[in-house]
Amino acid sequence: MARPFFELFLKGNKYTDPIDGKHFRKFLPYGYESPRENVLSPSTLSLERHRLLWLYLKRETDFFTKDYEVLHFAPEQAFYKRFKKLPFKTYTTTDLNSPLAEVKADICALPFEDNSFDIILCNHVLEHIPDDKKAMSELYRVMKPSGWGIVQIPQDLKRETTYEDNSITDRKERAKIFGQYDHVRVYGRDYFDRLRNVGFTVNEVDYTNFLSPEEVDNYRLAKGEIIPLILK
Questions:
Q1: Is residue 51 part of a domain?
Q2: What letter would DSSP give residue 30?
Q3: What is the DSSP string of 72-83?
Q4: pLDDT per residue over 169-210, tens digit each?
Q5: DSSP class per residue in 90-112
Q6: How many CB atoms lie within 10 A of CB 134?
Q7: Helix, strand, or coil here: 31?
Q8: Which of 12, 28, 46, 229 could form a disulfide with 78 if both were Cys (CB 3.0 to 4.6 A apart)?
Q9: How far apart are CA 182 and CA 228, in angstroms?
């Protein structure tokens, strides 16, 4: 995608990407089965969830100023270079396939010692993992006592329980039901209890509720999206 072209073409004052502070008259559409209008930032290529997480980390935590040991799964393009410049003690990126990941690893069998990281970021990963309980247990194992993390996922808050069906193998059918062909479930409200069941304390942070309607619109956020804050 030719970002400079879109940045120039869509430049304006109606919407703001808080990650880089640039302003636009409109964002780009994005989505697989049902594209969402006006959600993809022309500059950082961030989506609603990225901008929400950035605002939360910036305003509510000391993430940007402390020398933490950080583990970041499947590092997002909008964050990667910016996070690498922060004064962390260590910043470790991991994934099986991402070219941005320094450590190629299976989230269900991580090559890290117990109690290794102060902060873990693992966003929009678990919906791809067949054994998400094992993956969650690994996150708990490698997090330090008193550590914390964010584990965002696509979530249907109208659904009480998570839906999975391994018998659906057709890619088009999986995309229709799960949102993407490579997703293995649709998480419901019980997602937070899944995290609690492996040992985490979980705070369900409805951060858009702390922002004004004008900010939610200006930053193009998804009203009501929950940030799953995990603590050990």
A1: no
A2: E
A3: EES--TTTHHHH
A4: 877 888 787 777 788 899 999 999 999 999 999 999 999 999
A5: EEEEEESS-TT-SEE--TTS--S
A6: 14
A7: coil
A8: 46
A9: 22
On the CB side of 110, CA atoms within 13 Å amount to 25
Q: Residue 209 has what DSSP assignment?
A: G
Distance CA 151, CA 227 (A): 8
* 69 and 39 inside one domain: no
CB atoms near residue 163 (< 10 Å): 12
What does the CA dihedral 135, 34, 178, 131 come to, rounded to 10 degrees?
-10
Q: Does residue 92 share a domain with residue 24?
A: no
**Between the CA of residue 72 and those of 121, 126, 151, what are the distances in Å?**
5, 13, 10
The residue segments making up the domain with residue 8 are 1-46
**pLDDT at residue 9 tops 70:** no
Q: Taking Cα atoms as reference points, which of 195, 227, 176 lies closest to residue 55?
A: 227
d(CA 42, CA 17): 9
Does residue 10 register a pLDDT over 80? Answer: no
Q: What is the pLDDT of residues 149-174, one digit of tens each?
A: 999 999 999 999 998 888 888 778 88
What b/e readout covers 2-28, taking b as 16+ CB neighbours within 10 angstroms?
Answer: eeeebbeebeeeebbbbbeebebebbb
- Does 99 lie in the same domain as 19? no
Q: CB-based contacts of 109: which residues, under 8 Å, 6+ apart?
A: 138
79 and 193 co-located in one domain:
yes
Global pTM? 0.92
Q: In this structure, which amino acid lies at residue 221?
A: L
Quick check: is 52 in a domain? no
